[in-house]
Amino acid sequence: MKNYNKNKFQALNGGYATAEAMRQINPEVVAAYPITPQTPIIEKFAEFVADNKVDTEFVCVESEHSALSATVGASASGIRAMTATSSQGLALMNEILSVASGLRLPIVMPMVNRALSAPINIHCDHSDSMSTRDLGWIQIFCETAQEAYEYTFLALKLAEKVLLPVMVMQDGFFTSHNVEPVKIYPDEVIKKFIGEYKPKNYLFDLKKPITVGPLVLPDYYFEIKYQEIEAMGEAKKVYLEVGKELKKITGNNYPYFEKYKLEDAEVAIVVSSSSAGTAKVVIDKLRKQGKKVGLLKPILFRPFPQNEIKESLKHLKTLAVLDRSVSFGGEAPLFSEIKNALYPLDKKPKLQSYVFGLGGRDLFEKEVEEVFEELLKNKIGEVKYLGLRK
Amino acid sequence: MLKKSSQIPLGANIIKPGSSKEYKTGGWKSFSPIWDQKKCTQCLICPINCPENCIPIKDGKRLETDLNFCKGCGICAQVCPFKAIYMKKCS
Predict the structure, then answer these.
(1) What is the CATH number of domain A257-385?
(2) How far is residue A12's CA from residue A78's CA, in Å, rounded to a whole number?
(3) Could you tell me which chain A residue has the CA closest to the CA of B1?
(4) B47 lies in some domain
(5) Quick check: B11 and A211 CB within 8 A?
């Protein structure tokens, strides 16, 4: 591994760190509509465009539906195209999300998690991206600004290898607006890593004309969708391969999920994104008291690494899954995935579902500590709501 | 013969021109045109009206309908002034 001594730490929030990654990717087209808390990404990137720091054609569109539509068109033409959004913006893009994946376009979209209306709220929860988990996009959840920066490169290479679009999530405000020291790698190193984009079939290949998006009837639709199912399976393998390549630059690992003091733990929690940071602080504190507690932080959510998660959790006595979103009338999304993953085990850990932080409500160390205390006392039952006034 | 998932270009892209010839839509029909050559005067009204262009013309005369592409719309039977075409339910 080379030691890039010239790597600079910059004081950046998650949004600016993501914009920095987009500057280094230098996509031919970015079409975006501003929405809180995605705004820092796009305002910073627009500055790069205005200052001629990128060659990007920036398309100011009139809505998110148009933003993703323009991105789809640009990507289909045979170039790198990106957009970014949050919450209602993602909801408005919904129709085009499955178009992007169905057309097998390697679009990378930074996504800043924010609660869905109504009631209107601009703060973080995961109900926006969770509502799109079945639309054929690879989904990656980041804890920090550094992760959001680095996973954008991984996402780009992964997308272009398996021809699926990727959402790179970060928590609204907690990550997108909080300033952290972010290690920025040299432009030429990143440029070499992402390489040149050479699509096989594309609209603007005038020597080899193609048709994109034809009508497909019951005799072929199923077969086309099976290609997407296969591609998602492939994405699981390629994710690790690209991660290994990126590690040569950053020195960091890019696993399906992060295990924090999990190997010898008796009880553990599963929680993604910025809240995992809070959980780690609590785990360190409880470990000092001799309590065997740990954490599993999911990163790759689609495709979901079911077997690997099962193997990593099977030794636990009790396990809690903390969801920052709900499924009305059903089990919370992350909880339901983890429960499914554990099903093949003969001896399963006991499971407890917690819902927390809807509409950006803080998750405090004290609450995570209470979760661990309840797990240690084996208080398992119906879904619990952290910090809620019933 | 329908192709397998692994044999089709990704994302349903059509990567070469003229491929609609390979996609036989004749299976859609529930009525098939029956042409009575004795009544036919070769006026050529039917091939002009066929929306699928599947009634071939050779040396100024129409030939048998190409059933690989005929969707059984029945327009040929409707426009024939000599009732030389009728639609028969497919078995």
Answers:
(1) 3.40.50.920
(2) 32
(3) A219
(4) yes
(5) no
Domain containing B32 equals 25-89
Q: Domain for residue B32, yes or no? A: yes
| Residue B20 to chain A, least CA–CA distance (Å) | 11
Give B45-65 pLDDT, tens digit per residue: 999 999 999 999 999 999 999
Test B13 with A211 for CB contact under 8 angstroms.
yes
What ipTM did this prediction achieve? 0.88
Considering CB atoms only, which of B8, B11, B17 is closest to A103?
B11
* pLDDT band at residue B21 under the 50/70/90 scheme: confident
pLDDT at A88 over 70: yes
At residue A3, the pLDDT reads: 53
B14/A227 Cβ within 8 A: no
A85's CB contacts (< 8 A; 6+ apart) are A32, A33, A35, A38, A64, A67, A68, A93, A109, A111, A112
Positive or negative torsion for Cα B12, A302, A352, A307: positive
Out of A102, A103, A210, closest to residue B14 by CB: A210
DSSP string, A315-340: T-SEEEEEESS--TTS--HHHHHHHH
The stretch A338-358 carries a mean pLDDT of 98
Instruction: For A216, name the nearest residue in chain B, comparing CA atoms only.
Output: B12
Contact A340, A175 (CB under 8 A): no
Is residue A238 within 8 A of residue A254, CB to CB? The reply is: no
Whether A8-135+144-199 shares its CATH topology with A257-385 is answered yes
Give the residue carrying structure tokens 């029909």.
B29
- The answer to whether A102 contacts chain B (CB < 8 Å) is yes
Identify the CA nearest to A140 among candidates A250, A31, A255, A244. A255
CB contact under 8 A, B5 and A210: no
Domain count, chain B: 1
Q: How far apart are CA B77 and CA A203, in angstroms?
A: 41
Whether residue B38 is contained in a domain is answered as yes
- Using pLDDT thresholds of 50, 70 and 90, give the confidence band for residue A7: low
CATH superfamily of A8-135+144-199: Thiamin diphosphate (ThDP)-binding fold, Pyr/PP domains (3.40.50.970)
Q: By mean pLDDT, which of A4-13, A17-26, A39-48, A301-310 is the weakest?
A: A4-13
Indicate which CATH number applies to the domain containing B68.
3.30.70.20
**Does residue B44 form part of some domain?**
yes
Q: Are B9 and A103 an interchain contact pair (Cβ–Cβ within 8 Å)?
A: no
Mean pLDDT of A183-195: 97
Residue-wise pLDDT tens digits, A118-141:
999 999 999 999 999 999 999 999
